[in-house]
């Protein structure tokens, strides 16, 4: 099967540190991959560089055999929750609607059909009752669901999520992972920067271990081993109380 | 129209334009950038004068827009080279403004600009400098310029309303769906420059800041909807213009200073009594929560 | 204006030297606190207080006007803090509000004074752009004393400032009161602003607080050296600017001091030995060569 995402020789710096070096990997369609690694390993930067949101030193990336600029319409991105101004005068429905602005087009206003799509996405996230709520009045988990709804409404083929489960309640975690599983069963490809090693095996069928460069990548049951974890985290990891060997 | 009528119209137009632009300013957290631009347009005006040897409105507008863009670019550049954002703003605007003041004070090229005027505006002169507009007759030049600027601002705000909304709220996501975030940033800086210079004549440099920021901040305390914030902000701008004018006449003092102070009064009132985000409402909420 | 060797002129130059040094020091602290533009806001906010002091005294009374300026500036600082902590209005907007509204009030009062009989002699206009030459010998001596006080406070509490700025958690553990340090910082900042606005004016005062501090960083990474260098640059700018402004009649001092400081900044930015543009450029070229060599080596290894 042709890879849906292909990354070759990608290198990037962040504030004078080389944070990504010779990153190489291919992703098959219909997979749900988690990107794990220690802090500062370049996980968020990797996504940003792939989406041209951060400059690269070298390398190329293709999505469905196309460069990012041509493939933009097929890609959905859920950035980290911290990067947004929550005091902004807008409500949950409005935020989801923003995901459709690309479809609405320049100089036009969102129509009824766009609103309906947005409401539908909110309902799928269990947030229909909060559509009119100002976003600062939402809990962390609710905010994350709104962000995910915004990505869903783009109906993309490839999704990137940056730490979507960080600081959310258990119910939200379930809803999010259920949604990602649904996306996978519909043939979409999902890559998630994930912070919790304990849940990698439960949630993701593929894993990418990253520490400036790719330590290992592949099916979780084959690649998520103690050796690889040690190589990624370098002995600083305590795995269920035992030192990783 | 009467003399007072022209003055009130001028000031109201300033209030409207600044009110609209101001909302985006504070949501994008660029209040200090506006502070910088409203100072550096002075240099733009002086340079425009030196180059063209005329004090015409069009040249002023161009000179100011260029100055505003140069300011934004320089600040951006210094920040990229490692200077803190606030310090970059401070260095750029004080230096450019100082150059402007020196050029005026040393009367390079016999500039008929007066430093005091550029600082405080001279709205009382405006009704006298009239131009002939087809269909409308004799209208003060400042009013024509302000009307033009207001139309430009209205056009951009309405035409790109959803893009402003998204790029102000979540620029990273906006970039990821293909919106030209950087371009819009510089378009916005141009709008700020345009509005600043148009308002210059009326209220002078420092007071433009009051008109840009304070009504918008006051509106922010009343509503959770962006379009309502825009409407309220413009309204508060016009209200400040009227309050300021009549206050100044009553106290026999500077009209622009009074208008700036009036924006402060409206903000103070909003700060106290706004139903959801004012202080009194918040105290009541805390009491209710404690009961 | 009398020739620069005159007694009064010497005192004026000395006072702007000390003022520049004090500004450089405080400006360094502000930079590390990431509050560079607060000084701009507080300078503008000082204007109504100056004029109020004049009105209360009935004539030009420097101590009263300076106290008025201090109260006004502190009131502004307090209001900014209140607005940011109790509403969704962010700090930059709050600063813009206080800056412009207070300044507007100041202009209202100034216009009122200027229209009073004899008001035109108040010399209050000089507070907008600064006029070192108009300072009377008493004012000058006060300025020197106060500037020296500021320099002493920064110098004596050097260790405390260092902890306060770079490791406040650790500092608290040692018993250093953050609240007290903040209070002293604010007090000294307001003091410098209040004495500085005579020479530089309210609008450009921020420049003397920001520019020397930023310039110093291009020559050294050591906090102590930055402080010293910043003071030196500030002092030099103050003196140079004041001197140049005396060359023309009626030239305001503030803008020339700013230009002097900016010139030093441009030089520092370009040629500074620590992260100056030239140095960085040379380093980057060197790094690039290293990366190319390393990549070539790797390719050779892989090929074999």
What is the alpha-carbon Rg of chain A in Å? 18 Å
Q: Residue share in helices of chain A?
A: 25-40%
Q: Could you give the distance between the termini of chain A?
A: 35 Å
Give the tally of structural domains of chain A.
1
Shape estimate of chain A: globular
Instruction: Provide the low-confidence segments of chain A as ranges.
Output: 241-245
Specify the CATH architecture of chain A: 3-Layer(aba) Sandwich
Biggest interface between chains = B-C, 60 and 59 residues
Low-confidence stretches of chain C: none
Please, how many helices of chain A?
10
Mean pLDDT of chain C: 88
Q: Element order, helices and strands of chain C?
A: HHHHHHHHHHHHH
The chain-level mean pLDDT of chain A equals 88
Q: Reading side by side through the largest sheet of chain A, how are the strands ordered?
A: 5-6-7-3-8-9
Q: Architecture of chain C, according to CATH?
A: Orthogonal Bundle
Would you kindly provide a written description of the structure presented here, covering whatever features stand out?
The complex is a heterotrimer of chains A (245), B (291) and C (304). With 245 residues, chain A is α/β, with parallel strands linked by helices. Helices cover 33% and strands 26% of the residues of chain A. Chain A has one domain (5-243): P-loop containing nucleotide triphosphate hydrolases (Rossmann fold). Chain B is built from twelve helices and two strands, in the order αααααββααααααα. Chain B has a two-stranded antiparallel ribbon. In chain B, helix 3 runs antiparallel to helix 4. The mean pLDDT of chain B is 87. Chain C has helices spanning 7-32, 38-57, 62-86, 91-115, 126-129, 137-156, 158-166, 168-173, 178-200, 205-216, 223-245, 253-271, 277-303. Chain C is globular and about 95 Å long. Chain C has a single domain, classed as ABC transporter involved in vitamin B12 uptake, BtuC, CATH 1.10.3470. The chains are: A alpha/beta (245), B mainly alpha (291), C mainly alpha (304).
Topology:
The complex is a heterotrimer of chains A (245), B (291) and C (304).
Chain A: E1 5-14, E2 17-27, E3 32-36, H1 43-50, E4 58-63, H2 68-71, E5 75-78, H3 92-98, H4 101-104, H5 112-124, H6 140-152, E6 158-162, H7 170-185, E7 189-193, H8 200-203, E8 206-211, E9 213-219, H9 220-223, H10 226-233, E10 238-239, E11 242-243
Parallel strand pairs in A: 3-7, 3-8, 5-6, 6-7
Antiparallel strand pairs in A: 1-2, 1-4, 8-9, 10-11
Helix pairs in contact in A: 3-5, 3-6, 5-6, 6-7
Chain B: H1 3-27, H2 31-52, H3 57-80, H4 85-105, H5 115-120, E1 130-133, E2 137-140, H6 141-159, H7 161-169, H8 171-176, H9 181-220, H10 226-251, H11 255-273, H12 279-290
Antiparallel strand pairs in B: 1-2
Chain C: H1 7-32, H2 38-57, H3 62-86, H4 91-115, H5 126-129, H6 137-156, H7 158-166, H8 168-173, H9 178-200, H10 205-216, H11 223-245, H12 253-271, H13 277-303
Helix pairs in contact in C: 1-6, 1-9, 1-10, 1-11, 2-3, 2-4, 2-9, 2-10, 3-4, 3-9, 6-9, 10-11, 10-12, 11-12
